[in-house]
Structure formats: structure tokens, C-alpha cells
Design a protein that fits this description.
Shape: globular
Number of helices: 5
Strand order of the largest sheet: 3-2-1-4-5
Strand content: 15-25%
Radius of gyration: 14 Å
Distance between the termini: 47 Å
Largest sheet: 5 strands, parallel
Length: 138
């Protein structure tokens, strides 16, 4: 019996880098094992790209998130992201949820009773905090 797996993502997969490459290969592995994958993305461009490239169900949260936003805009968008995830995930029945970053911890923990198993995978090697401490100065 195939599993229903949900992966939360707040970045694009159009280019692979340290922040998304591990989760990209996780997506491919889930598809190869014939499990049902639902991927949450932040905008319509990412949705179209992932439907074509990853070939799975993709849910658009209608947020334009950028690593170049200033820190106050990022905080606002991260909160909006968490709220939209909670609302959208209430209507989806899943067995497992993979959160790829710290931003996913709040929605996953609030929905924990609804989910059989949740995994919050925080890759400290991806320099999450370092990237988020700069504003277009890189």
C-alpha cells in the first residue's frame, strides 16, 4: 500500500543549491517508490515548474517569498506561510509530513495530532541562519 506523503517547501526548485538540493532528491525518491506525494510551494510559477518536473500534486500557497526580503518582511511572510499551511493542510489527509526547515516546525507541531508521523528535517549545513542574516549584500 502506498503512503500519502506531504513535503513542505518555501523555495523554488528551478535551480538547485545547498538549501533545496537534499529535499529535491527526497522528492524524487518518494516519486520513485510510487508513494502519493503532495508538495506545498509558495507561488504559481513554482507550482507549474514542480508539476512538470516532479510530477506530483502541488499546492500553491500564493506567497512571493525571497531570500532578499528585509528581515521584517521575512518575519511577516514566514508567519503568513505558517498560517496558510495550517489552513490548507487541514483539508488534506496524509500519513507523513516532511518539513525541510525551521519555518515548517510551527505548522507541523500544531497539526501533529492529525498526522501519523511528522519529520522536521533541519539541515544546519545549508547555512540557513547565515543566508537569512543578509540583505542583498552577498
Amino acid at each position: 500500500m502506498s503512503k500519502k506523503i506531504c513535503v513542505l517547501s518555501h523555495w523554488s526548485y528551478k535551480t538547485l543549491h545547498g538549501g533545496n538540493i537534499r529535499s529535491y532528491f527526497l522528492l524524487k525518491e518518494i516519486i520513485n517508490k510510487k508513494d502519493k506525494l503532495t508538495l506545498f510551494v509558495t507561488n504559481n510559477d513554482d507550482k507549474k515548474f514542480c508539476q512538470k518536473k516532479v510530477k506530483c500534486e502541488v499546492v500553491n500557497l500564493n506567497l512571493k517569498m525571497s531570500r532578499w526580503d528585509n528581515k521584517f518582511i521575512k518575519i511577516y511572510k514566514y508567519i503568513a506561510y505558517a498560517i496558510k499551511l495550517i489552513i490548507k493542510m487541514r483539508s488534506i489527509k496524509v500519513d507523513y509530513v516532511f518539513g525541510i526547515n525551521l519555518i515548517h516546525a510551527l505548522p507541523i507541531s500544531l497539526l501533529n495530532k492529525k498526522i501519523k508521523k511528522s519529520i522536521i528535517y533541519v539541515d544546519l549545513w545549508a547555512d540557513f541562519f547565515w543566508y537569512n542574516s543578509f540583505e542583498k549584500k552577498i
